Amino acid sequence: MTLIGGAAVAWPLAASAQQREQVRRIGLLSTLPADDPEWQARLAALLQGLQALGWTVGSNLRIDYRLGAESIERRRQHIDEMVKLAPELIIANGTSIMAPLLQATRTLPILFVQVTDPVGSGFVASLARPGGNATGFTALEYGMSGKWVQLLKEVAPLVTRAAVLRDASLPSGSGQLGAIQAVAPLLGVEVSPVDVRDGAEIERVVTEFARSPNGGMIVTSSGLGGTLRHRDQIIALAARHRLPAIYPVRSFVSTGGLISWAPDPMDPYRRAAGYVDRILKGEKPADLAVQAPVKFEIAVNLKTARALGLGVPATLLARADEVIE
Predict the structure, then answer these.
(1) Which residue range(s) make up the domain with 111?
(2) Which of 41, 71, 159, 261 is the most exposed place for a label (fewest CB within 10 A)?
(3) 189-225, pLDDT tens digit by residue?
(4) Distance between CA 255 and CA 263 in Å, rounded?
């Protein structure tokens, strides 16, 4: 009886210790702050995807966050702190984080989301066989950026000049601009690049650009810390100067932008949960193919269109995934 009683006491203690050992630890890096609505929505999609696969924060999963690094120095500090924590996996949001992160570690598994041209940037060897310690989900492919010019002309036919807001410090900024420049002359549009790193510069250049007639704006995808960080200012400038504008994320349109064409921003975060699950269960990033966007959406804000005096073609409205009245 004593032996049985001893075993009965020991077993729950052993089970409890084993349960504690099963809590897995991952890290998450993002340039957007924790209170940003777009970031909160994307994080919620990731957490929902993880929970559907049996991973619950506070139960069998712990996530260490480093968020809101606007400057390069702060970004590197966050990366250094995360690498020292040595989580089993680091999720990196955006192209601007990946280069310094790979400089900091070539051993910790990395899962990137919303990265443009990971092969050209040197993050992976190929999409099918990444090699190395990183894999993930790409954002918009460069060549598809020309679609923004087409849709801008469709909703605002009088536009003959377009300010292209991009982040020149990222390869994706130049790549998207190049694709736009290839298509724009065919549609009778002259493009002018505008750097988005500094709010004062955006204000000055867009205000100067708007002094001539028939202007519009194309806001490119520049990671979570670029155009998204300045989206309120960009939308306000477009309204103030009556510039028809097309955006790379649906959330621009829900907060007053005219039109967007973009991959579903939540889908890669839900799908990323599957890769987190597989890596925590022993698979290596080197063997997991980089995934491209699978769903693209058009969103149109009719209230903004009316304020700009634009009549949105019925054919465009019929193709739209979301129409805001």
Answers:
(1) 13-139+265-287
(2) 71
(3) 999 998 877 788 899 999 999 999 999 999 987 654 5
(4) 18
